[in-house]
Amino acid sequence: MKKIRNVFKHIKNKKQSFTLIEMAIVLFIISLLMLLILPNLNNQRKKAENTQAEAMVSVIQTQVDLYENDNDDKNVTYSELLSKKYLTEKQIKKAQEFGIKINGSNVSK
After folding, report:
1. Cross-referenced InterPro entries, in alphabetical order (predicted)?
2. Cβ-based neighbours of 76, under 8 Å, separated by 6 or more
3. The whole model's pTM is what?
4. Which three-class secondary structure state does DSSP give residue 72?
5. Domain count, the chain
6. Is residue 82, in this structure, part of any structural domain at all?
């Protein structure tokens, strides 16, 4: 009877913990999930930047068209659009970061 009590005490006092193998498996699963998620985030970021660049081209083309309707000048530049307040400095800076060029009356990336 004493032996059975000692066994139960020993089992009762033994603390539950994770084994090294269980921890390794958890870390492996987490790393697999990271490998799946990170490339997808990168692709989404690139897609968002491309969408933003296309929208910026559209905005600048619209402003160039408006400038040409108001003025007879067909050689539009960023400085003219800025001075006549068709675009802001922030918009011009962002357009130049995207590599957007104004060629006469056409805007391209």
Report:
1. Bac_GSPG_pilin (IPR000983), ComGC (IPR016940), N_methyl_site (IPR012902), Pilin-like (IPR045584)
2. 64, 67, 68, 102, 104, 105
3. 0.64
4. coil
5. 1
6. yes
